[in-house]
Amino acid sequence: MLLSSLSLLLQHVSDLYVTESQFAVLSAADGGEPYDLAESIVSPTPTPTAAGNYGTSNIVLEYFISNNMLEQLESSLSLRGHFSSKEIDILSRLGQDISFENCLKYYQDMISIVIDQTTFLSILTIRAFSADMSQKLSKKSLNLVKNW
């Protein structure tokens, strides 16, 4: 009985779609133009000054996983609606009446942001239950950081 229930559950596991973006965080103080984060999705170009912005990069990385970012993404993309959809399997979806703090933890589990120690590029990985939402979430996040 347990084996048949598990088999039935596994037949209905939701697909995850992943969008990965790489970018460098540069400031106008480096003598260059402010870096276009959205453009970096297409053509990331690290520069020697990227290594000097490691501290700035950490601040930017923290913003990606902040409650402020989640609030802005929720207001423009309805993340709770996407992540709590009945079309998503019960083990993967966000609960309907979940607190903001638990929603933030769920959101933080769906994104990853790291700095490549060799190239000093920041790598943003977004997981969502549709390709469209994964791409929208990535683009919106990058634009919010760019305008931050």
For the structure shown, list the relevant keywords.
single chain, 148 residues, alpha+beta, 3 strands, globular
Q: How would you portray this structure in words?
A:
The protein has 7 helices and 3 strands; from the N terminus they run H-E-H-H-H-H-H-E-E-H. With 148 residues, the protein is of the alpha+beta class. The chain has a 3-stranded antiparallel beta sheet. A hairpin with a 6-residue loop joins strand 2 and strand 3 (122-128). Helix 4 crosses helix 7.
Helix/strand/pairing category: alpha+beta
Which regions have little confidence, pLDDT < 50, spanning 5+ residues? 40-51
Secondary-structure element series: HEHHHHHEEH
Main β-sheet: number of strands, strand sense, barrel status?
3 strands, antiparallel
Number of helical elements: 7
- For the terminal residues, how far apart are their CA atoms? 54 Å
- In terms of DSSP E residues, the strand content is 5-15%
Could you outline the blueprint of secondary structure elements for this entry?
Elements: H1 2-10, E1 17-23, H2 37-40, H3 54-64, H4 67-77, H5 79-83, H6 100-110, E2 111-115, E3 122-128, H7 131-146
Antiparallel strand pairs: 1-3, 2-3
Helix pairs in contact: 4-7
